[in-house]
Every structure is written in C-alpha cells, then in structure tokens.
Amino acid sequence: MPGSDYFREKFVRFVIISLIFIFFQGVPVLAVNGMYDNPSSNVGYYMGEYVSDTIPSSIEAGSTYPITITYRNAGMVSWEWGVEKFGLLYQGLQSSIEVEPVFSQIPSDIKVETQEDFSFPFTLTPPEKPGEYDLSFSMSTRKGDNKYTPFSNGFTKKITVIPKEGVSSGDVGSIIVDSNPSKATVQMGGEEKGITPLTLPDLNPAKYEITITHPDYPTKWTQVQVEAGSVSRVTVDLTTGEIPSVKTEKLLKFTPLGWVIDNLPLLIITIVVLFLGFQILMMNTTRIPENHPIRRFTRPIILVSSSPDGKGRFRRAEKEKGKGGTSGDSTTNTGPGGLSEQKKSVKTSGSGTGKENAVRDRTLRREEGGGIQKPIETDEENPDINVDDPDQEGKEIEGMWGFPHALRDRYEPLGIAGSDSYARVYKVRKKDTGAVRALKIGNMKQEGSEILQKETSVWRSLRHPNIVHLFRSEFLDDMSYLENEYLGGITYKGNHHTSLCGLPKPIREHYAVSLINDIAEGLKYAHDIGVRHYHLQTGDVLLTPKLRAKVSGFARGRNELGFSIKDSDVREADAAFISPEQKNSERYGNPGRRTDIYQLGVIFYELLTGYLPYSPEAFKASGKPGSFKDHSEELVLPSEIRKNLAVYDPIVLKMLSLKKSDRYDLMDELLSDLNAFRKA
C-alpha cells in the first residue's frame, strides 16, 4: 500500500497541471475579449498613417488659415463611401482653435486603396488669446450623424498663436520678416527662429540683429530697432545684392485714435444717454428756471421744452402747428376773455374758404362754456395724406437695373459693373459704412454647393495686394451673391475696362510685364499657402485706375481650390486657357501649381502678340508654310509674329511648354526672370 509521500507527490502534480491548463485557456479568452472591447485595437484592419501637413508652426490671431493633412491608408481595406464614411476627425476643442469642418470626409466618388495617400482640407481660425495650443486629428469612420469611431494612431501638433501683427500690448513691439524667395531661415542673435514669412512677436524695445540664410543664395543680415507699440517690417531680396530694407510703423490700435475706434460703440452709447438725459432734465422748469442763462446757450439743441400745463412738447411740432391755416389765437387763448376774443376773431375774419369757416363754427360750438380750450384735430393742415400702396412692395422687388429688393436694406445700387450668362455685377454702396463694393449676384436661383461654400471660405482668408478681397458671401434659398472689393477699372480709347478680357491687345511691352508681375505675385502668395486657381483667364484679372492687376475668380464651385481632384470642370473655360494636363491627364499628368503658370503664360502671350498660343490665328500671323493641323502642338514664338519680341521668347517658351517638367517649377523663378526684364 502506498505511503503518504506517494499521495503527496500525486497531489502536487495535479495542482501544477491544473494551473498550467487554466493559464493557457484564460489568456486567449482575455486577449479576444480585450480586442472586441476596444474596436480601435484592430489596427491591421482599419489603420491610417500620418504622412505630412501644411500647418504652420505659428498662426496670427484674427486670421484664417487653409491647411491640408495627408494620411496614408495603411490598413487592409480601402477607404470609400458606404455605410461607414471615412474621414479625418478633429479631436480638439473648438473653444481653443476653431477647425472647420470637424470631420473632413472622403467624397463619395473617391476610393483610397491601401498604401495610397489622401489630403484632407481644413480651415483654422485661431482665438484672440495668444499662447500654445494642441491640434489633434485621427482617421475615423462615421455612422449616422455623430457616431465616430477613431482609429488607434492619431496625430497631434503643437502650434503657437501670436497676437495680431505680433504685438499684444503697447509696451512691446514685433518684427515681421519677408524674403524673396520665401522659406529662408531667420536667426535672431544667433538663435534660429523659423522660416520666412515669419513674425517675431512681443519683443521688448531694443536693437536686434536679424540674419536671413538660404541654401541657394548668400546670407544677409541687418539690425532692427524695435519700438513699443510698433511693428518693424524687414524685406530682403536674396536674389540681388541689395541690403535688407527695414520699415517701422506705429500700430493704430495703440494710439489715441485707435482707442477711440476700438471703443466707438461704447462712446456713441454714452453720448446718446447723456444727450437724452439732458433733454429730460431741461423739461423740468423747477430745477432749471426758464430764464436761466444755460437755456439761452442750449436752446439750439433742445428737442423738448416745457409748457404751462406741465407737459413736455416737441418744439418741432409747435412750429409746424404755427404754420397751419387757422389763427393761433383761436386755439391757445385761455384767459377769462378768451372765448369772446375767439368769437371776435372768427366774426372779423374775412379770409378763408367756406370749409374753413365751417370748421371754426364747429370749434366754437364744442368749446362754449369757457375753460381751457382744446384744439380740434382736423385734416385741414395736412390735406395730402400718404396711404401705403399694398402693391408697392411687389412693384419694387426688382427696381433700377434689376437690383433685388431683398438687398436694398444693405446696399444702394450705383450701376452695373458687368454681366454674363451666370451672374451680374453691380457697383453698390454699403448703407452702414458708405464703402463702395462690387456685388456679384447669380442669375440662377439655386442653393450654393458645398464646394462653392468651401471655396469662398478660403477666398475670404486670402489677404494680398494682388488678390481681389472677398468681404462677404451668402447662399440663400432664392439668391446667392458675393461682396467683393471694387476696383474701378481704366478708360482706354474711349471705352471703360474693368478686366483684361476686353482690353485691346497687344499692349505695350512694359505694361504687359508689369501686369504679369502683379498676377504672379498674387498667385505666388496663394501657392505658398497651398491654394491653386486652375481657371485663370483674362476675365479673372481685374484692373485698378492705375493699371495694376488683381486676381479674382477663386470661387467657381467646380474644383477644390487647388486640392487635386479628377473632376475639375474646365469645359466652360476658353479652350486656349485649358492646360494640357486638364485636357488629357493620362498623357500629361495631374494639375498642379504649374497649371496656373501655363494659364498665366497664355495671358502673357496674348498681351504681347494679340493672339492666343497654339491657335490658327497665331500660326497664320507667323507666315509659316503648311497647315496648322500639322503644327498644332508647336508654339509660335512671339518673335515669329513681331521680331522685337525676341527677348521674351525664352520666358514664354518656359511658361507654355506642353510638358509640365519643362515649365517653371515655382512662381519665384518666374518672378526672378520678370524682375530682370523690368530692370532692363
């Protein structure tokens, strides 16, 4: 019979085997349960990988910034429209930095396969309070309206909000550095601060040494004296030997005039309250007697005055009453002999019509018995009575020039600035400020598309001297309109022109170079912040009375403002302005910033020669033998039309190349060549 040691050994083995069995059975259960409790742990199935972004490291309070964030589909399934909507979700607080939209979803006609990238557009609006803020984004799916399921790996970036123009109080100043070309490194006192364009905010008044470096150009430096309540602007052209220029300007908001402007509503309310209070005070004759000297000096501004019965009377009403057809004695004589004197005046009055005498008789009959006589209200003093016409509002729905009645409370129409089959442009004056604006009102009554609203939102954020300023946009159920900057245009050979479209061409060479330089400056600014035009034509280039050019037409509702999509509709554009990649993307690639350079080249070519490039008219003007069909893809150089334009052949050839790789890569390169022509 086995002993106690044998049973003890069996028991220990049983315990060990049981523990091992429980361990290997429990771990998978825990793992599986944990996986399903947290859906975001399925990183192999739904997974997004951050690639890049255009978020600046510092943004200015009071401005708006269009940005893009690029993510790669690193999961096992494609991102496309279905029961679940894929997109990039902003997971921060709207109270800190406002981000629109909160969920930037992939359009219904886009499918992002695995290992493919997609750029999501957003618009950032920083708060007025400067400081450091975190922006957090994550790929997510959405079911229904607000049910989001974020992926596991998110993206967070810390940015700094600086005050408007870099100055938060009147005790400090700022330095704003801008360079040509941009993206140059800025150092202050040997410490790297960032790349241009750059704002160095809230600097104590002192002298600072600023160094600007670029890998392709010589280093430049300058000394800047920062003053309290001022901004010092440093402009440096790295492509020339010129020294950096420094301009210091006192900010209006830190001057007495700026304080008045900032507090103007409060000042107006205070003045109105004091004025009304003074009027009420002057009604009380016991407090300020009638013969007091103050009444003699304030009588011109008194709207109300007291009467013997203790009630206030408006002075204007009393004056108008004195102008009536009846004698004042017949209504204001309140003495003991007032009634007899009134009767006497009626009996001895030899003037007036029978109707007036009948009114006086009715007055006497009603007032017999003495006492204070009260005037009888009649219509004799106002024989013409204005009665509202119930049909008048319907008649005024469209008044002068067809201007909508619904906008008359905001704008005063001054004339028609232009029109086409899609919209009409009015010259108007704002009734609240008196400013003159250009109001573009659509002819078709339809709601604005989501793309058009996004485009106008980005356009409103563009601030550049060579881009038309969009002040307001509204998309109502029955009307859509844009409120733009009004430029005025120029008068040439007896005709008024608001854009390059109707301007007779060709024009003088130095004017052509100057206009193209203006357009290129505006497009460079847009390209630097990730915005493309894609539909640039002569009709989108507006003119000032001093023959300066400004770019318009960023909002069309047809494309994503430069964010690459395949369905950019250019069918309504003139054929000469459509780039090769817009006609045939399979052969020439997708549109990009070089598309805008090509379209700018079309404008330049027409201003110099009077013809459109790659056109039968240009081929015929060159005098070349053969048929245009055999040379349709050959560019006729400007010198082949006019020999004195030979100096422009290289720049035009580089702008209008059918291959994108042969064109200018950046607007900076084009501007450098244009500046060389202007100096020559």
Terminal Cα span: 119 Å
Which second-level CATH architecture of the largest domain applies?
A: Orthogonal Bundle
**Whole-angstrom Rg:** 38 Å
Helix segment count?
17
Which percent range describes the beta-strand content? 25-35%
Residue stretches low in confidence (pLDDT < 50, at least 5 long) are 26-43, 306-355, 357-397, 558-569
What's the pLDDT, averaged over the residues? 77
Report on the structure:
- Helices cover 28% and strands 25% of the residues.
- The strands form eight sheets. Strands 2, 4, 6, 8, 9 and 10 form a six-stranded mixed sheet that branches. A five-stranded antiparallel sheet has the order 21-22-23-25-24. It has a four-stranded antiparallel sheet with strand order 1-3-7-5.
- It has six domains: 4-37; 48-162, Immunoglobulin-like (Sandwich), CATH 2.60.40; 165-256, Immunoglobulin-like, CATH 2.60.40; 263-319, no CATH class; 404-485, Phosphorylase Kinase, domain 1 (2-Layer Sandwich), CATH 3.30.200; 492-557 and 569-679, Transferase(Phosphotransferase), domain 1 (Orthogonal Bundle), CATH 1.10.510.
- It is built from 17 helices and 29 strands.
- A hairpin with a 7-residue loop joins strand 17 and strand 18 (245-250).
- It has 680 residues and is α+β, with helices and mostly antiparallel strands.
- The longest helix is centred in the N-terminal third of the chain and has 34 residues, at 4-37.
